[in-house]
Amino acid sequence: MKKIFALALVLCMIFALTASAYADFAPNGPVSMIVAYKAGNGTDQTARILAKYAEKYIGQTIVIDNVDGGSGSIGWSKLAESDPDGMTIGFINLPNFNNSIVKELGTYKTDDFAAICNHVTETSIVVVRADDDRFPDLDALVAYGREKQGTKDELIASTNGNGASNHIGAQAFANSAEFTYIDVQQGNTADELLSLRGGEADFCVVKVADIASMANEVRILGVFSPERIKELPDVPTLAELGYYPDWLGSSRCIVAPAGVSEDVIKFYEEAFKATMEDPEYQEAAASFTTDFKDAKATGELIEQQQRFTESLSEGFWYDY
Question: Residues 141, 187: one domain?
Fold first, then answer.
């Protein structure tokens, strides 16, 4: 009887702490989560897994709202213009989001959003078609790029939009390896990979989670990291091969429209933290890198990526 009483007391304390943290806000209906890309995109896939397991901590259904177009700017414009009542949240993808500000694709700025947390951090990778025998490794791709530079057979890269994260990756790779390429812009990662798999492009830069459903159709040649990553221990890094020396990738952050209360931010921050620590979620999300950062750290990351992206406007694009 004492054990039962003690267990009940512990459960009551946990409930009291949770209720206290969430007491000043709770959504009173379905929560809209804006994803600024089409269904099937890497962000969409990871968002749907998160949403499924977050519902028990949020207490409401989470409805994914895919608002595709403008390299993400249409969805982010909609999110920025939404009511700051806690009923609409969404993802911004760094550095795509930051570059959309640099390119003035939308009228929003970083301070039009309130950071909640980071969900996923993804390292960029260079991929080719699995059946493309021309490129058994990254050095072969570079050699071809240098040899065919300026010819009718110049390398073609599909990207996810002008100055978007995967375009930045392709350019950083080409700059460091000293070759040029023809950029075929698709506007989103799903279509970028479709272009590659369909033979329209020779290579592309994406993130690890983007190829989770097509691992047999593409071959990974290199990773944008100083050291090999745990997800791909057998794949060399661009740094070790003498190309781009630094980490490059993207972060998928959850934000709300600016003007939401601190109670709203705290509610979702704690709910998503609990979700990402949930063993059932972790099992379902094993194919990508969950990387929870709290609201403060996420806000700092957004601003850091804004500074990074603005620095690319000087001497980055074909700077050799």
Answer: yes
pLDDT tens sequence for the chain (320 residues): 445 544 444 444 444 444 334 458 999 999 999 999 999 888 999 999 999 999 999 999 999 999 999 889 999 999 999 999 999 999 999 998 998 999 899 999 999 999 999 999 989 999 999 999 999 999 999 999 999 999 999 999 999 888 888 999 999 999 999 999 999 999 788 899 999 999 999 999 999 878 888 889 999 999 999 999 988 999 999 999 999 999 899 999 999 999 999 999 999 999 999 999 999 999 999 888 899 999 999 999 999 999 988 988 777 876 44
> Do residue 60 and residue 102 come from a single domain?
yes
Residue 167 placed within a domain: yes
Pairing of strands 113-129, 62-66: unpaired
Question: Strands 218-223, 113-129: parallel, antiparallel or unpaired by DSSP?
Answer: antiparallel
The kind and range of the H/E element at 306 are: helix 295-311
Question: What CATH number has the domain bearing residue 274?
Answer: 3.40.190.150
Residues sharing a CB contact under 8 Å with residue 292, sequence separation 6 or more, in sequence order: 117, 118, 119, 272, 273, 276, 277
146 and 96 in one domain?
A: no
CATH code where residue 159 lies: 3.40.190.10
pTM comes to: 0.76
> Which residue among 188, 223, 258 closes a domain?
223
How many domains does the chain divide into? 2
Q: What is the DSSP string of 247-264?
A: --EEEEEEEEETT--HHH
In a domain, 229, yes or no: no
Token pair 């947390």 is found at 117
Token pair in block for residue 153: 């057979």
Cα–Cα distance list, 205 to 67, 124, 223 (Å): 23, 6, 10
Q: What is the dihedral of CA 17, 19, 25, 29, to 10 degrees?
A: 140
Residues 135 and 218 occupy one common structural domain: yes
Domain range enclosing 205: 123-223
